[in-house]
Amino acid sequence: MGSKKRAKPSRGKKRARPCADQALALEYVRAWAHPAPPPEPSTADAGNSFLPPQAARMARGGGGNVLFELHSHSKHSDGFLSPSALVERAHRNGVKVLALTDHDTMAGIPEAMSAARKFGMRIIPGVEISAVHSPRQIPGSGEPVHILAYYGMCGPSRFDELDSMLLNIRDGRFLRAKNMLAKLNTLKVPIKWEHVMKIAGEGVAPGRPHIARALVEAGYVDNVREAFNKYLGNDGPAYATGSEPFIETVVQMISRTGGISALAHPWSLKNPDAVIRSLKSAGLDAMEVYRSDGKVDGFSELAEKYGLLKLGGSDFHGNGTKDESDVGAVKLAITTLSSFLEMARPIWCSAMKDILLKFAEAPSAANLGKILKFGQVVSLDGSAPFDSGTDVVNLCLTSWLNYDDMEAVELEEVRSKLACAIKA
Q: What is the pLDDT of residue 386?
């Protein structure tokens, strides 16, 4: 009997440990997701004495979930909603943090950030980059692969370098779309270029979904899925390649510009193990494993095999079909979100520091406007001088960071260089 009595407290401790870890993870995620510092503990927290102090504060905040949506699209690529409308829909669905990940463009991020401020939401500046997996790296060959990139509030460091890659991909989309229309014409399925471009919208590089919608509207197929199955799929008779870079180049670019990289929808790949192995060697951080219908068989094991963080998102486009997952439909575990932020935040803070150091080389109101393009909308007088490097750093901090990041980042070097540059 004595041994049994001693065993009971031991089992109880084992059960309590995950609860405490999860509570700490929730506090960590909530503190980042909400820009205002959490309220101080009060005597009302005495009943939560079994939790750490931070977790007790969290418990008073109400609710046990912080909903992140890590894969969504707007009409700046192949989505149907404007960034503002997407943010509003996400807010209605309970999303607290939204990653806008349009295909090969970040043009919708500023509008999304502006809209999110009205709802107290956070936007993760993101992009879904088109790439190819070609073991021999032969141009024009290989399997299409999409890589998600997640950046901090400051956006990518070396943005011009990343933007040049994205622009090249978008330019290739125009040629690719024309080649697809030529193939469709050969198949006696003529589609007008003007029709595709009207569907895509002004300034948007056309993609397969736009051509698929044109096929539906022209009456050649009943729906977008049939268009892909019959004509536009990777092995379809009207498929064509663009100017996509190799997957290794994309992952290295994301790392170099201060982002977190994740493989999108690996279940669509012919040989996911080979692709993931190449991506891991290049520095891939994560891969999608979760969908609205749950964890996809086999891919959790692949993520564990290669030491990748398991993520997921709805891949929401807003097309209104019954089979599309709504924005916020994938509810990631709080421990997963905590692991994601623990990986990402030091990288994002380092990118922020790099951006400010580069600004110190040529401080001006015009250049400050450029580096704040993904932050708050700031009205700047182009002729107004800066009083000090501290003013510039503090302005950027209020745009990019929350309270605990401000305390964690070492910025004395930045302030010193900016002070010297401005005095000069």
A: 55
| The predicted structure's pLDDT at residue 248 | 96
3-class SS at 419? helix
* pTM attached to this predicted model: 0.83
pLDDT for the residue numbered 4? 42
Instruction: Say what the pLDDT of residue 407 is.
Output: 57
Q: What is the pLDDT of residues 54-98, one digit of tens each?
A: 444 433 344 457 999 999 999 999 999 999 999 999 999 999 999
Torsion angles phi and psi, residue 367, rounded to 5: -70, -30
What span, in angstroms and rounded, lies between the C-alpha atoms of 385 and 9?
66
| Cα–Cα nearest to 234, from 205, 204, 269 | 269
Segments in the chain below pLDDT 50:
1-16, 37-63, 377-384
Phi, psi of 315 (to 5 degrees): 55, 45
CB 339 within 8 Å of CB 309: yes
Give the pLDDT of residue 348: 92
Pair 24, 55: CB distance under 8 Å: yes
Q: Please list the residues that pair with 124 across neighbouring strands.
A: 99
Strand partners of residue 396: none
Q: Which helix (H) or strand (E) holds 132?
A: strand 122-133
Between CA 255 and CA 261 the distance in angstroms is 7
Query: Residue 245's pLDDT is what?
Result: 94
What DSSP assignment string belongs to 310-337? EEE---B-----TTSPPTT-----HHHH
User: Cα–Cα distance between 78 and 220 in angstroms, integer?
Assistant: 20
Q: How many helices (H) and strands (E) does the chain have?
A: 16, 8
d(C-alpha 375, C-alpha 360), whole Å:
18
Helix axes 334-361, 2-33, angle to 10 degrees: 40
CA dist 127 and 167 (Å) reads: 13
C-alpha dihedral, 28 to 33 to 34 to 38, nearest 10°: 0
| Alpha-carbon separation of residue 270 from 130, 145, 214, 234, 273 (angstroms) | 16, 10, 27, 10, 9
| Pick from 123, 144, 151, 118: nearest CA to 261 | 151
